[in-house]
Amino acid sequence: MIAQLRGRLAAKSADRVVVETAGGVGYEVVVPLGVMERLPSPGAEVTLATELVVREDGWALYGFLDETERRFFQRLTSVTGVGPKIGIALLSALGVERGARALREKNIALLSSVNGIGRKTAERLALELGEKSRSSPKHRPPRRQLGAKPRSRH
Fold first, then answer.
1. Residue 146 — very low, low, confident or very high, per pLDDT cuts 50/70/90?
2. How many structural domains compose the chain?
3. Which of 4, 66, 71, 141 has the fewest C-beta atoms under 10 angstroms from its C-beta?
């Protein structure tokens, strides 16, 4: 998996960017609208948290400015019938906070207002992720690092 990408922002278009690494490789990365709006102008250095999606018809790299956005995208695409296109559409339309709140409150009208999400998909999202969104992704307690030993209480 490609978890992070750092390099020079070589190009920006409607829904994707090209990030050129120090080794000269240019990666095309699909990003939500909110990420696109917060990116600097081409030529600047950027770091993106990424999610690589491998399918029969090709590989696609999705980029986010922080781990919270990436985790929310992963949650969305874990639901049956919700692929990366719908995940990006929801993040573009609502962002993490509004999206998590819509799931928590089971706001089917708001969820189904997102391009590509019908009533049934909105209901499935709310049912499967509503409880998981109770703790907002930004306010989750820190996890113990992998390989770290638990502290002794003595």
1. very low
2. 2
3. 141
Q: pLDDT tens across 128-141, in order?
A: 998 765 544 444 43
The predicted structure's pLDDT at residue 95 = 96
pLDDT tens digit string along 69-91? 999 999 999 999 999 999 999 99
Q: So what's the pLDDT on residue 25?
A: 97
Residues 9 and 51 occupy one common structural domain: yes
**Domain of 32: which CATH number?**
2.40.50.140
Q: With beta carbons less than 8 A apart as the criterion, state whether 71 and 102 touch.
A: no
Q: Is residue 16, in this structure, part of any structural domain at all?
A: yes
Q: Which residues contact 19 (CB under 8 A, 6 or more apart)?
A: 5, 6, 7, 8, 9, 10, 26, 27, 29, 46, 48, 63
Instruction: Give a yes or no: residue 145 inside a domain.
Output: no
Question: Whole-prediction pTM value?
Answer: 0.83
Count other Cβ atoms within 10 Å, centred on residue 154.
Answer: 3
For residue 53, which of 76, 25, 22, 23 has the smallest C-alpha distance?
76
Structural domain harbouring 27: 4-64
